[in-house]
UniProtKB/TrEMBL annotation:
One Pfam family hit: Pyr_redox_3
Lineage: Bacteria, Bacillati, Actinomycetota, Actinomycetes, Mycobacteriales
Cofactor(s), by name: FAD
GO molecular function, one term: oxidoreductase activity, acting on paired donors, with incorporation or reduction of molecular oxygen, NAD(P)H as one donor, and incorporation of one atom of oxygen
Alphabetical keyword list: FAD, Flavoprotein, Monooxygenase, NADP, Oxidoreductase
Protein name: NAD(P)/FAD-dependent oxidoreductase
């Protein structure tokens, strides 16, 4: 209920939390329609994920020409990506360029962490408190990232370690001296698999502490030659159109036939072609690969044969082959010579399934089978994904109910965008949206455009608030669960389901129905006057 009292003017129209790809575009877009915006960013510069993740080998696994903003044709045409898969430094300089080119920095407060965001039900405004200031806003938009809260496991004795410890997600800006040192890497997800080959080039010895093996395919990174660049730029509009209609936000389709409907020779050739091309799209070689167990087994067998072929020591090869999940149901990793790295004399695979980590002491890591003396210990142990960055902020909606408590059994939203009981609050690329299953940059643009149009609609209609209705949230959660249950994804214990965080409810968090499908649903909701939302 909105009271009749005239509220004090809010400080700004919109507070945006986070200045990564999503937050920057939100600032640009909201400002363009005349709204006043303030962005808070905990880091000292723009970039989000690409500001923090500076570990050796950090690189995007979506093609650079696709993992970039589409909102400005001029920007698209003037920026020259140098590699098919951009490295972290190149992406960070791109994001910095965007911030400068569109004069975004003046509305961003850096080195500022948002602590609380509380709704005033009388005014329908949000009071947002950071470690620097408190502001009020008509709308609060969380662009806090899906993989932004690093997780370091609570291993007994960690604080005793006399060497250096680093998390890949908080890598020092000046880099880490690895030359001639004994380095331990805990974790073999995307971050570990990307960094281990480079760490092994520098370190005296690398101990890879592997709990679960992951599937990895060659990244297939190459320089972008001038002809390719010209061709991409000439056809950008079509490329973006196809991306928006696609399942994953990139302009590619799976093979036209299902795995087992494809003759064996042709099937193998298709896998081989994808393997040679490299990249995460291997997991979508055939359309049924993460749906049909038989199809999945074919893809697995292909990759497992590759691992056995590359790794010389067959005992090590067997340990590097995952035993616990269908291929592609955890984010498939991409690498540059990961498996070959295990042929080096200075690399040791420590299989924690045989002997788990027991503790850490001043000199290194102790497993139940022995000790590993180290100078540097790298945690490539991942993130409290999708909800972690929201949980860190005390977000309170109607009745002062905390979002964290509301989501105690798993995140519940309508379209991933809105939550009942939290009017005028929006989440960008959060749980309930395609998010991490699609191109995050196009995902952020699609969400921000939807929110911006929604805010314009509210102003045009003299409304003060919009709020997801409980029934719409229930239905959306059910739809997300049904779609996930129709795939093989829920079989795997992964950060998609929160299983990497002790005590987190096991819920498949992203919307798995495809980027294009999701975009159409969001557009239909808006066209129908924000069906499923209550507009006040
Ligand atoms: O994190 P992860 P990540 N003892 O959670 C292990 C994106 N990304 O940072 O599986 C021992 O995948 C854990 O073992 P287990 C991408 O979406 C993209 O690597 O829990 N080990 C696992 O091996 C990716 O999926 C890019 O048994 C422990 C690892 O740590 C996501 O970010 C690059 C442990 C964590 O793997 C996250 O990737 C990097 C413990 N106590 C990241 N706790 C690209 O674009 C955890 N582990 C290429």
């Amino acid at each position: 209920m909105v009271t009749t009292r005239t509220p004090a003017e809010p400080t700004v129209d919109v507070v945006v939390v986070g200045a990564g790809f999503a937050g920057l575009y939100a600032l640009y877009r909201f400002r363009a329609q005349g709204l006043s915006v303030r962005v808070y960013e905990a880091g000292s510069d723009v970039g989000g994920t690409w500001y923090w993740n500076r570990y050796p080998g950090a690189r995007c696994d979506v093609e650079s020409v696709d993992y970039s903003y589409s909102f400005s044709e001029d920007l698209q045409q003037e920026w020259d990506w140098t590699e098919k898969y951009a490295s972290q430094p190149e992406i960070l300089s791109y994001v910095r360029h965007v911030a400068d080119r569109f004069d975004l920095r003046r509305d961003i407060r850096f080195d500022t962490r948002v602590l609380t965001a509380h709704l005033d039900e009388d005014t329908m405004r949000w009071t947002v408190e950071s470690d620097r200031e408190t502001v009020t806003a008509r709308y609060c938009v969380f662009a806090t990232g899906a993989l932004s809260t690093a997780m370091t496991p609570n291993i007994p004795g960690l604080e005793l370690f006399a060497g250096e410890t680093h998390h890949t997600g908080h890598w020092p800006h000046g880099g880490v001296e690895l030359e001639g040192r004994r380095v331990g890497v805990i974790g073999t997800g995307s971050s570990g698999i990307q960094s281990i080959p480079i760490v092994a080039e520098q370190a005296d010895h690398v101990f890879v502490f592997q709990r679960s093996a992951n599937y990895s395919v060659p990244a297939g990174n190459t320089a972008i030659d001038p002809e390719t660049r010209t061709r991409v730029k000439a056809t950008y509009a079509e490329r973006r159109r196809l991306s928006r209609e696609s399942g994953g936000g990139s302009p590619y389709n799976a093979y036209p036939t299902k795995t087992m409907d494809t003759p064996p020779d042709e099937r193998r050739a298709a896998f081989e072609a994808r393997w040679q091309l490299g990249g995460v799209l291997f997991s979508k070689t055939f359309p049924d690969q993460t749906i049909d167990p038989v199809a999945n087994d074919e893809a697995k067998a292909f990759v497992e044969a590759k691992i056995r072929e590359i790794v010389e020591n067959q005992e090590v090869a067997e340990r590097l082959i995952p035993k616990d999940h269908p291929i592609g149901t955890k984010r498939i990793c991409t690498d540059s010579d990961y498996y070959r790295t295990f042929n080096k004399d200075n690399v040791t695979l420590v299989d924690l399934r045989d002997a788990p980590i027991d503790s850490i002491d001043a000199n290194g890591v102790l497993t139940t089978a022995g000790r590993y003396d180290l100078d540097v210990l790298i945690f490539a142990t991942g993130f409290d994904a999708m909800t972690g960055s929201l949980d860190r902020i005390d977000i309170r909606g109607r009745g002062a109910v905390a979002l964290k408590n509301r989501w105690a059994d798993g995140p519940r939203s309508y379209l991933g965008l809105g939550v009942d009981g939290f009017p005028n609050m929006f989440i960008v690329t959060g749980p309930g949206s395609p998010s991490v299953l699609a191109n995050m940059v196009l995902g952020a643009e699609q969400h921000v455009d939807w929110i911006a149009d929604c805010l314009a609609y509210l102003d045009e209609h003299g409304c003060v608030a919009i709020e997801a209705m409980p029934r719409a949230v229930d239905d959306w959660v059910a739809e997300c669960n049904e779609r996930a249950a129709a795939t093989l994804f829920p079989i795997a214990n992964s950060w998609y389901l929160g299983t990497n965080i002790p005590g987190k409810p096991r819920v498949f968090m992203p919307f798995i129905g495809g980027f294009g499908v999701y975009g159409s649903i969001c557009a239909e909701v808006a066209t129908a006057g924000y069906k499923g939302f209550r507009v006040i």
